[in-house]
Design goal:
With 93 residues, the chain is an alpha+beta fold. It has helices at residues 29-37, 47-55, and strands at 76-81, 86-91.
Length: 93
């Protein structure tokens, strides 16, 4: 993209144009740890569950893939939109 705009194409096969490149998103280490835990916060609140989650094998994240998070039932997540510099709260699912 000649504009420098980042976008995702989901649900179909896509070949990059000559002027496009596959972009790797670097995340802070705390976010990487949270994504690797793969723990349901509404069910796994005990110390034993957290210890078991830390012992689980963490998977290596492909940094070119879209980062998504499934919000559990009766939970809320704050999402920050960097384009408009505004935060919003999303309720799951």
């Amino acid at each position: 993209i000649k504009t420098g705009k980042v976008r995702s194409v989901i649900g179909q096969t896509y070949m990059l144009e000559p002027n496009e490149e596959l972009w790797k998103k670097e995340l802070p280490t705390t976010v990487e740890e949270l994504l690797a835990k793969d723990v349901d916060p509404s069910h796994d609140r005990t110390a034993e569950a957290n210890a078991a989650a830390n012992k689980r094998k963490s998977r290596i994240r492909d940094k070119t893939r879209v980062v998504s998070y499934r919000v559990p039932h009766n939970a809320a997540v704050q999402v920050y939109d960097y384009k408009v510099k505004k935060a919003r709260v999303c309720f799951g699912p």
